[in-house]
Amino acid sequence: MSVELALSASAVIKVYEAEKGIVQALRGVDVAARPGSVTAIAGPSGSGKSTLLRIIAAIDVPTAGDVTVAGVSVSGMSPRDRRTLRRRSVGYVHQQPTDNLLPDLTIGEQLTLVANHRGASPADVERLADLLGLGGRLSHVPGEMSGGEQQRAAMVRASLGDPSVIIADEPTAELDSATTDAVCELLGDIARDRDAAVVIATHDPQVMQAADHILFLRDGAVQSETFEGVERAVIDSTGRIQLPPEVLAWYPDQRVRLEFDPETNTIVIKP
Amino acid sequence: MSGGWPGWLAFFAVFAVSVAGVASGPVFVEAVGDAIVVDTVVTQPPVARAFVESFDADFREASAAVSDSLGDIAGLAAGPVTYAIGANRTSANNGDRTTASQVRLVYHQGGLDQLRPTATSGEAGVWIGQRLAADLGVGVEDRFLITDPQWILDVPIAGVYADLDPFALGAFWERLPVEVRPRVDLLFRRVEPELVFVDEETFFLLVGGLTEDEARESSISLGVDDFPPLNGRAWWQATAFGGTTGAELLETGAALSDLQAAFVDPTQPLGELMRGAGLPRVRIDSDLFDVTEDVDNAKAQIRPSIGSVQLTIGLLGLFVIGLGAWFVARRRRTEIRMWTIEGTPPWRLGLQAALAAVPAALLGAAAGTVMAPVLVRALGPSPTLHPEALSSPLIIGVTVIGLVVAGLVTTLLSARILDIERRAAVPRWVWDIAIYAVAATLLAQLTIGNPVDPATGEVDVAAVFFPVVGITALVVLGLRVVSMAAVRWRTAGGCLPTPAFLAWRRIAAALSGHLGIVTPIAVAIGTAVLASSLATSLSASLDAKSLVQVGSDVAVPFARTAVTVDLPEGYSLVRTGTATSQGREPVMLLVIDPDTYGAAVPWDPAFGADLAEVLELLSDADGDRIPTVVAGPSNDRLPSSGSRRTQDMTLAYEVVGEIEAIPLMASRRTTLVMRRDTVIAWTEANPDVSGWAELQLEAGDDAVEPEDLFRALQAWLVSTDTPTGVADFLAGIRQPADLIETRSGTLANAAFSAPRWAFDYLRLLALVSIPLAIIVFAFAVVEDRRRMAVAHALMRRMGVGSRSSSAAIGIEVTALVAVAAVLGMIAAAVLSLLVIGQFDPLPRLLPGLRTVIPGSAFAVAGLIGLLGAGLVWWAAHRSAARADVAEVLRVG
Quick check: A116 pLDDT over 90? Predict the structure, then answer.
């Protein structure tokens, strides 16, 4: 039985020209996320997490590959259509609480503003705010709230209008451990309650633990994937496989022999 | 979307300044018109005069109607009426003796009261002058005949008056039409006709204008039975009120034109009345018509220049509005990013920014509209305000375009805010070269072409743009050099105290990183200084040129017969003439009297030397040759010694110095300047060479007067006295004052006034640049306050004391602003010296344009720099002091 995906990215390549030359940020990444799931994208700095997030959020377009959000292919879309797609189907939470909220408006005012923008009802605002424990804070401006509360408000904002995909770029980076736990729980609640695919870029093991599906990126490619607690190496669509650095260290000349055992369906790597 | 109250205030101010600058253009043009009219009124109240060259016998009613019509025009006071007959081929006799003098019978309202009687009969009749009475041998109660081929009048003499002095008529008689006042010819000899004055009743009796009963009852007898009706001329005079504004005077001129049309239009009651009275062609002549034409010409002449300055101010204002929108959008970039991710199109964010700026823009535009006439009053040639000249489409246009620019800038920034592709940006040097190229092109255009059209005084658009573009190019170049040096020397501050060390390291980094703040400040200050320098230099140059053209504040050609009179303090005689030499271009000879010259001629440093120095050089005679200073074009060199011949004399000269110009010299003609006393001494010592012997021979037994030496030269009376004072002096020595020339009059001439006014308006560019610089500072405060607060917090966290950290920020801010101000001022000074000569509006007149860099402009620029630095430092310090260090560091 095939499950309709909220988000899928296939063989995504992103190359851009920087001042110091050509940068290959993504080298053929595959991602898929079901509605109601939480996907964590992990990896060291510079591994391409943010680039991937911006592409699957329809903020940017891939150089090659295909990205589908809410059943719509993003590749080749005009900026105007991407804006419409973002408005209808994507919620976004930034790393810094101050980047998510307008400092001069109360939480209630700005949630209402966004709800109008995305076609959500005021009742939705109240329900979501209650769900995320912000019911009593709607009349406060962001400056009067803690970082955790601000991030929760950002999540309410991102969830308004029932987007298919909610993307969060390291949403717990500024938060303490206890608040991080709470936020992770909320993200899971949101995913299930709104039937949305939540995609989170993170370094945080706590967040990864809370995710259904974890992708480890390294040097712009998916190194491994953890699903239902089992970590697997990933062979990308071009047949390449990435070895973890500690394994790679066993083969200093980076030349190996592969032996396939058809009886056990096993590939053995020998020096 | 706004930038908080500083942003709002800055938007308000920039809209106010931009609208005031642009909207003041038409008001300034009107003020110029006003100034021309008012100047004319001040120097000579305009006179409106209706006149006819013939009239029927009974024109009394029509005459009253003409007089009343003139008096009914607002701004005019009906003046005297004048009727005259005769003077074509008239003669007068008393039966025994005849004089062939032409005689004119004149009735001038109130005229008899102004005559000084020497004898009177107390009866009705005519008044004749003493000279005519003597010629005819008649006196009061005699009768005399005025004969004409067509008619004869036999009239009694009621009185004899003291002849009017043509050189000292006084205000009453000077206003009379030239036909009915005593005159002199070019040789100052009195010319005919002799004026015979009559009262109104006698005049109408003579022209047959009285009814039969009136004639019968008249107190005088004509002495002829069959008296023919006579024709003559009539004038109805009206004078404009003094102190009337130029606009009202122009309205008076228009009303006079309408009246002129009504007089000759038979379908109108007035025209019908005139036609019935034999006055079908009443014409009105008025100085106001000429003034109107002058005003129209001057306005047309300066309008393009004013337009160029308006355009520059408008573009500057829009640039600052764009800069402000950029600052505000950067400050609100989080918000913009958030909405963009939410799918809001950039144009909508731009529209929101524009709408948010609407209240500030509208209030600013309103303030600018109010300020425009005030600015013109401060800068313009007339204190009279002309708010009616404000152009609503212009004001609305500037406001709307400003809002569009603010919206566009926000739209562009919004469109790029999610652009994560760090595309290879256009390298910095490409922009730099583009600016240098535009500046070089404008410079070439100014150097090769004429930034100021010598024919029209029109200022080229390139000339108006050059201050801004040239300053920008130099400032950018200077900043590149300074920032490179700062980066190179950034490690050199190790031995400095902590605040200075920190400031130095931050400045080194900031100079290249904050070009967006430093450049606009430097450009605004530089533009203000350069525009001010240009305007001051031009004003000074026009003053000097007018002095050369006129000779002093007041100058008048002086009769040879009067050159021996004693001159009061502030008066001097200067003699000019042509001196020739075979095979060489004629030169001009100018002889000054060293004893009186200094007090009678304001000397200008632009002439090329100090007057005392020139006089000293000219006195250095060795007996062989006359020491001479050469003034004029430097490319027209004379031999350093030689001889030149005037009409009577040959003078041997020796060049002892050179100056660029001297008052009264001919335009661009080499002029030999000599002292009167050295010329006399030399000619007496060299009778064989100079022609002294011929003069002695000619004089015979009489002594040769030194003045005879100069009889081939034209004498000019020059003075620093007022025109009225000079006129009174001339009247006192019985010399005509008709040819008085004044420097103020010359400066009011369109050739001088058009460029002067255009460049006066350029001062507005300087004035506008100053508030714009302050506004840029305000934006800098908005932009930099947070950065400074974070810097302060970081320094505190590093263990630097509060005072040291505050001092470091103060030093950094002051240094940045000081660099901007100094670069702006240096750029302005360099450009002033480089191009100012090209702006000479009257290159045919010497002296050439000389750079005058007003110290006040530098002082104001320095003050702005200081205030700006203080403002930024205060704001940063205040933010830093109020900020929670931990919070600032966490979110900063």
Answer: no
Is there a domain that residue A1 lies in? no
Residue A51's CATH number = 3.40.50.300
CB pair distance less than 8 Å for B338 and A88: no
Residue with tokens 């013109």: B376
Minimum CA–CA partner of A18 in chain B: B422
Cβ distance of A114 and B421 shorter than 8 Å: no
Q: Round to whole Å and give the CA distance between A162 and B229.
A: 111
Cα separation of B511 and B483, whole Å?
Answer: 5
| CB atoms A17 and B422 under 8 Å | yes
Q: Does B310 lie in the same domain as B214?
A: no
Q: Give the end of a domain, one of B721, B742, B757.
A: B721
CA dihedral angle for residue A92, residue A98, residue A104, residue A107, rounded to 10 degrees = 50
A17/B334 touch (CB, cutoff 8 Å), yes or no: no
pTM equals: 0.67
The answer to whether position B713 is within a domain reads: yes
Does the residue B437 lie in any domain? no
Domain range for B413: 1-45+246-257+296-425
Model pLDDT for residues B548-570, shown as the tens digit of each residue: 988 899 998 887 666 778 888 99
Closest CB from A17, A83, A102 relative to B424: A17
Predicted pLDDT of residue A38: 92
Is residue B335 within 8 angstroms of chain A, CB to CB? yes
Q: Are residues B281 and B221 in the same domain?
A: yes
Q: B698 in a domain, yes or no?
A: yes
Q: Which residue of A has its CA nearest to B347?
A: A80
Chain B residues touching A141 at Cβ < 8 A: none
Write out pLDDT tens, residues B332-371: 888 888 888 888 888 999 998 899 889 999 999 999 999 8
Number of domains in chain A: 1
- pLDDT tens for each residue of B162-198: 988 777 677 777 777 777 778 776 666 677 788 889 8
Range of the domain at A43: 7-270
Cα(B826)–Cα(B824) distance, integer angstroms: 6
pLDDT-derived band of residue B731, with 50, 70 and 90 as boundaries?
confident
Closest CA in chain A for residue B335:
A102
Q: Tell me the pLDDT tens digit for each residue of B53-62.
A: 777 767 778 8
Those residues whose C-beta lies under 8 Å from the C-beta of residue B455, and which sit 6 or more positions away, are none
Using the predicted structure, report yes or no on whether residue B887 has a pLDDT greater than 70. Answer: no
**Which residues in chain A are contacts of B342 at CB distance < 8 A?**
86-87, 92, 114, 117-118
CB of B605 less than 8 A from some CB of A: no
Q: Does residue B99 share a domain with residue B54?
A: yes
**Residues B558 and B683 reside in one and the same domain:** yes
- The reply to whether B82 falls in a domain is yes
Task: Please name every residue paired with B86 in a beta bridge, in sequence order, or none if there are none.
Answer: B104
- A83, A89, A98, A155: which to substitute to probe chain B, counting the most B Cβ within 10 Å? A83
Rounded distance between C-alpha atoms, residue B406 and residue B350, angstroms: 7
To the nearest 10 degrees (0 to 180), the angle between helices B802-835 and B515-550 is: 40
Contact B454, B377 (CB under 8 A): no
Chain B environment of A60 (Cβ under 8 Å)? 418, 420-421
3-class state of residue B709 by DSSP: helix
Q: Which of B572, B618, B617 is nearest to B597 (CA)?
A: B572
- Give B205 or B473, the one with higher predicted confidence: B473
Boundary (domain end) residue, out of B366, B390, B425: B425
Contact A188, A210 (CB under 8 A): yes
Q: Same domain, yes or no, for B272 and B375?
A: no
Q: Which residues of B touch A102 (CB under 8 A)?
A: 335, 338
